[in-house]
Design brief:
heterodimer; A: outer membrane lipoprotein receptor (LolB), chain A; 12-stranded mixed beta sheet; two-stranded antiparallel sheet; globular; B: mainly beta; Immunoglobulin-like; 31-stranded mixed beta sheet; elongated
Chain lengths: 238, 910
């Protein structure tokens, strides 16, 4: 009875998620984002990739962070957080422009070629392998003629390094149902980000937590530089 | 690219002519360079399908220069079976390589490609039949990068601008961190900080205010707030993750020798000189870190971690109450509702020197030395209107007090890592304190007394701690503690109060000692979701107490036997306790309990009597936390404790604690049973800039020493006696805070309501049931305009009502409003003007107080100097009166204040 239930469950998942059974690629990345270390996983299928991060301690699947790339739609569906508030954002897929460079490096027994890009405030250097043809990579990165196994920002704040690859990965897992959420586009999210930071700074200035005779600066740490005034240099001073 | 174009136009021409030629040159070059691109680039496009004619959804199209070269020149990602690329480079031979997942690669060559031609290359790819079906894993052995978890780093430069002076000013501003204005006690995310470290070394211990109040903010690069902090690095990850600490990282150029000094001097009304001076020196190297401070002031500031004015407990005092002897005659004045800086007329010297040596790689020695000398002057009036048995008893006393506390203290701490998994720590502390208080009392406008209280307090403590890490997640600790505290108080009264008809002066001597030894062993462990501790231990304590009263006249000395105490109180416990923490999804569950065998022994040497009591005590406690979502949570706690009542209720013969009040006890060795529970709900939504707290607490102590008070015009007698009856306390707290974008301000309302139910006997009454109700609310509003000027206003209202059942109730209501104007200009100027209004009794509106203060600060760009100009108490209020109620009286206290003064202060940073 249990086996039947399992099969039914798996089948329904397949139907819902449109995942083709078997032949997935699973890559484990070690990542640093603004000082937080986490172990992430990228699971690639022909038309959908899923990027999961274990850096948060959310108890339920629905609360776990997710980033889903739908290659056919050229879109990324992801969950962003800002002050513990969750936003569901639809971003464009692999929008960064690459410049191929001449370095090579051996990562996980594959020879990788280098490329550079500038993405939302930072310069990055990536190493990709053509042995895995999926034009993909960790987090929002991708768009090179192969899988990115390592990418680092020049200021070292953002780093992703592949530590494990499993080809023909067959393990099944639950997928987040995209239709459950309403997604806003990236520009809307940028506006919300900037407005919220502005209001937060005014809150800090006006709730008495800062001694009157002090001046203060607030600097926000985030992977993408969305609000340069608050994220670069000394931040916003008041 | 033809290089000769550059050389052709190079000519040395100065000034703008050169610039014009250069710009022409550049355009020319660009034009020239762009031509080949235009001339030679090709564009290639086509379809990519499989042999069934289906479009291949994703493929990589790579442009290479020759088949053997691995180098990819250009590429495009083909989607939906189509691709198109405009080449940026020119190639002798173009090789197009198309690859797609699970298909064999396709190739196409174009030899000698023609200029600016469009090519079409369609591909048909065949499935790769050699696909492996087995799962293949490739792993790297490389170590991931090392990152420190649980640590939030705040770069000081990002939080300040040099107008704050001491690191405490920065720490206050960091999100999640609160600093108690009076004591300097720091809490992070609601938990009291264990210590503030300097470069990873614990230089200050729990007396971290020495550092935070004195270290100049310019020396610090970064403040790290550490959660799951463990004082013992072997216990990190094992100990219950509730401890927090701060770590200060120094600026690179500040490593070595640095410091700052400031000197301020001013005049007060009455042409009295006021001073505020300080010197801080920091000396840091890899093996040796030291910090010293020396300060002197007469403007009410307390730079030390000890409080001799209001007797607020600093972090250290809160932690170590058990090992102290009791002071029978209190040093404390009443608690002024005004800030120390208005009411503390001091003359305070404070010196402190701390250092840490590293010896080899395994051990370190830390020493801290403290010196305090102060002279506090106060003129107080205390008037009581007692309503007892339908009679009014009025008292009115006038005090002129001079208190001189002096303290010397030295601490040594040695740490030795005996192996990679074990640590030995030895701590030693020695302190000697003497407080001399001279008081001139005018009692009820009739009798005049002169009193001198000399208190000498000697403390010695040592402890040895051994920690052994058993596995990554388990550790064992052994503690040995020994402490000795000796408090001797000599209270001199002139004229005599014990026997005024016969003698002229009294001298009361009292001496309380505490000798304490304890042994304890703790096992700590943790798993992924749990943390637990289990310990067993034993304490032994011996408290001898003596007091005697000697009266003198004309060389005749008489020891009054009615006032002689001589007893020894001994306490012995053997206990085991366990605590457990479980993290389960949204729940955090923490049960704990302890089982203790307690033996108490009271030997009275005068009456030759020995009383012994044995108890077995079981004390459970339970805490539950539930997180609704990312912004709100609820916490509930419940606990039951049994404790022996304090040894200060054990002396049977009377002791004078002031010229008016005499105290004695009817002792007993009963235990008090304390039941308490509380619930706390909070919402902290930073996204909506909204905060909400609601909490309720209930405490009941069953079994107390109740006071039997007898009040006459000239004397008050108190006898404490035991009854197995309860005192109760209920407390409600409420807070709501929101940033209002329309007003560009934050508004906050805080409210507290508490009820205390307690008992006493007054002037031979029956046992009275009393109730004290207290209600306070505070409305805070502060603006965050973009202009340099901003405003802040806080209005507080407090109501108190004390009543004994079926009796008259005593009420008082106070209002206080503080209004500030804050000006921060970009040009290094800062101005603060404040108006503080007090109405101590809303029924007497003519008795109100207005304090005006002004501060002006100038910080030049390079920040080596800073100039401060201060005007305090501009209206020169000389006294302040406040009203307190009890269940049978209304009392008013008046004390003098620091006069209005002007001061100029210059700081220099080196």
């Amino acid at each position: 009875m249990e086996i039947i239930m399992k099969i039914f469950f798996v089948l329904s998942l397949l139907i819902l998620s449109g995942f083709s059974y078997g032949q997935n690629i699973y890559i484990e990345f070690a990542s640093i984002t603004n000082g937080r270390l986490s172990k992430d996983a990228l699971i690639i299928n022909d038309s959908i990739s899923i990027y999961k991060s274990d850096s948060d301690n959310s108890p339920t699947l629905q609360e776990k962070s997710f980033l889903i790339k739908k290659h056919v739609e050229n879109a990324i569906y992801l969950r962003e957080g800002l002050f513990n508030q969750l936003f569901y954002v639809k971003d464009s897929l692999h929008s960064m422009e690459w410049k191929l460079t001449n370095d090579t490096k051996l990562i996980l027994t594959e020879e990788c070629f280098s490329a550079k890009t500038y993405f939302r405030g930072r310069n990055y250097t990536a190493y990709y392998t053509t042995a895995i043809t999926n034009s993909d990579g960790p987090w929002k990165f991708g768009g090179l003629p192969g899988l990115i196994l390592e990418i680092k920002s020049d200021d070292n704040h953002i780093q992703f390094i592949a530590e494990k690859i499993k080809t023909n990965y067959t393990e099944q897992f639950e997928q987040v149902k995209i239709n459950d959420h309403k997604f806003m586009n990236w520009d809307e999210y940028v506006n919300k980000f900037i407005n919220t930071i502005d209001k937060y700074i005014r809150l800090v200035r006006s709730n008495g937590s800062i001694d009157n005779s002090s001046k203060a600066n607030i600097k926000i740490d985030a992977p993408e530089i969305i609000y340069p005034k608050a994220q670069e240099g000394e931040g916003i001073s008041f | 690219m033809p290089p000769k174009l550059f050389i052709l136009k190079r000519r040395k021409v100065k000034g703008s002519a050169f610039k014009r030629i250069l710009s022409r040159q550049i355009t020319f070059i660009l034009f020239v360079i762009s031509i080949p691109h235009y001339l030679y680039s090709q564009s290639i496009s086509g379809k990519i399908e499989n042999n069934f004619g289906e479009k291949i959804p994703m493929a990589n199209v790579i442009i290479k220069d020759s088949i053997n070269s691995g180098r990819i020149k250009e590429f495009v990602i083909a989607k939906n079976g189509q691709y198109s690329i405009s080449l940026k480079g020119s190639y002798q031979k173009i090789i197009i390589e198309v690859s797609a997942n699970k298909y064999i690669k396709g190739f196409f060559e174009i030899e000698n490609p023609a200029n600016s031609k469009s090519y079409t290359a369609n591909f048909i790819l065949y499935k790769d039949e050699n696909i492996q079906l087995k799962e293949v894993t490739v792993t790297t052995k490389a170590k991931s990068f090392i990152v420190k978890d649980d640590t939030v780093k705040y770069n000081v430069a990002a939080y300040k601008d040099g107008s704050e002076r001491k690191i405490e000013d920065i720490i206050k501003k960091l999100p999640g961190i609160e600093v108690n204005e009076t004591t300097g006690v720091i809490s992070y995310k609601g938990k009291s900080v264990e210590t503030v470290k300097l470069e990873g070394d614990d230089l200050f211990g729990s007396n971290y205010t020495v550092g935070t109040k004195n270290i100049n903010v310019d020396m610090i690069e970064q403040v790290q707030a550490i959660e799951n902090y463990s004082d013992n690095p072997l216990l990190k990850g094992i100990e219950s993750g509730d401890k927090v600490a701060l770590n200060l990282k120094l600026k690179k150029e500040k490593l070595n020798f640095s410091g700052d000094m400031d000197f301020g001097s001013g005049v007060s009304d009455g042409a009295k000189l006021m001073y505020n001076a300080g010197l801080n020196i920091l000396g840091i190297s890899k093996k040796y870190k030291s910090f010293g401070t020396l300060s002197y002031n007469t403007i009410g500031i307390n730079n030390s971690p000890f409080d001799y004015f209001s007797y607020n407990q600093g972090a250290e005092q809160i932690e170590k109450v058990d090992f102290l002897a009791k002071k029978i005659i209190p040093e404390s004045f009443y608690a002024s509702s005004l800030d120390d800086r208005r009411a503390n007329l001091n003359n305070a010297w404070f010196g402190n020197y701390n250092n840490v040596f590293k010896i080899g790689n395994r051990s370190s020695i830390k020493t801290n030395l403290y010196y305090i000398h102060d002279r506090i002057n106060s003129i107080q009036q205390s008037g009581s209107n007692n309503f007892i048995n339908n009679r009014q008893i009025l008292t009115s006393d006038y005090y002129s007090i001079e208190k001189s506390p002096t303290q010397y203290r030295g601490d040594v701490e040695i740490k030795y890592n005996s192996s990679k998994n074990s640590l030995v720590e030895y701590k030693f502390r020695l302190s000697g304190e003497s407080i001399n208080t001279s008081t001139n009392v005018l009692q009820n406008n009739t009798s005049n007394y002169q009193t001198e209280l000399k208190t000498k307090d000697f403390k010695l403590r040592q402890s040895l701690l051994f920690t052994q890490k058993i596995t990554g997640k388990k550790a064992l600790q052994l503690f040995f503690n020994h402490s000795s505290n000796d408090i001797a108080q000599n209270y001199f009264l002139n004229p005599s109060v014990a026997d005024p008809l016969v003698y002229s002066t009294d001298n009361q001597y009292s001496n309380f000692r505490n000798a304490y030894v304890s042994v304890r062993s703790v096992l700590l462990g943790s798993t992924e979701k749990t943390k637990y501790t289990f310990s067993i231990g034993s304490n032994a304590e011996k408290n001898p107490f003596q007091s005697r009263l000697t009266s003198k006249k004309n060389g005749i000395t008489h020891i009054n036997n009615l006032f002689t105490n001589d007893f020894t109180y001994k306490k012995y416990t053997l206990y085991s306790e366990g605590s457990f923490h479980l993290n389960l999804r949204k729940w955090k569950i923490s049960p704990s309990c302890s089982l203790t065998y307690l033996q108490q022994n009271l030997t009275n040497k005068i009456v030759i009597q020995n009383t012994k009591k044995e108890n077995i005590i079981f004390e459970p406690a339970f805490t539950l936390k539930y997180k609704f979502n990312n912004v709100s949570a609820v916490l509930g706690t419940i606990s039951y404790n049994q404790k022996p009542l304090s040894e200060e209720y054990l002396f049977t013969k009377p002791i004078y604690i002031s010229n008016r009040t005499i105290v004695k006890n009817e002792p007993g060795l009963e235990l008090q049973q304390i039941t308490s529970f509380g619930i706390f709900y909070l919402i902290n939504n930073l996204y909506k800039q909204f905060q909400f707290n609601l909490s309720a607490n209930y405490n009941r102590g069953r079994g107390n020493f109740f006071p039997n008070i007898f009040i006459l015009e000239n004397s008050t007698q108190v006898v404490y006696f035991y009854l197995p009856k309860s005192n109760e306390n209920i407390n409600f707290d409420f807070l709501i805070e929101k940033y209002m974008p329309v007003l560009e301000s934050t508004i906050r309302l805080k409210s507290n309501y508490s009820i205390s139910i307690y008992k006493n006997i007054v002037n031979n009454s029956n046992l009275r049931n009393n109730k004290n109700q207290f209600f306070s609310s505070e409305l805070f509003m502060k603006t965050a305009f973009d202009i340099p000027i901003n405003f802040e206003n806080v209005v507080q209202n407090k109501k108190v009502q004390s009543q004994s059942e079926n009796s008259k109730s005593f009420k008082n209501e106070t209002i206080n409003n503080t209004f500030k104007i804050i000006v921060k200009s970009a040009k290094n100027w800062f101005i603060l003007l404040s108006a503080d209004y007090f109405l101590p009794n809303t029924k007497k509106t003519d008795e109100d107080y207005l304090f005006l203060d002004a501060a002006l600060r100038f910080t030049p760009k390079r920040k080596k100097f800073e100039v401060n100009f201060i005007a305090k108490n501009i209206l020169n209020n000389k006294n302040f009166r406040q009203i307190e109620t009890t269940d049978f009286s209304i009392n008013n206290f008046q004390s003098n204040l620091l006069p209005g003064y002007l001061m100029l202060n210059i700081s220099y940073n080196f």
